[in-house]
Amino acid sequence: MSPDPSFGRTGDHFRFGLHVSVAGGLDRIFGRGESLGANAVQIFSHSSRSWEFDLPGPEALVPYHRARTGSSVSSVYVHASYLINITSEDPAIAQKSRITLEKELRTADLLEADGLVLHPGSARGGDRAAAIGRASAIIRDVLDALPELRTPLLLENTAGAGSMLGSVPEEMAALFAAVDRPDRMGLCLDSCHLFAAGFDLSGDDGLDRVVGAFLAGAPSGRLSLWHLNDALFGLGSGRDRHAGLLEGHIGPEPLSAIVLKAKSTGVPLILETPKGEGETLDRLNLRRLHGLAGLPVPEPLRDAV
Question: Is residue 11 assigned to a domain?
Answer without folding.
Answer: no
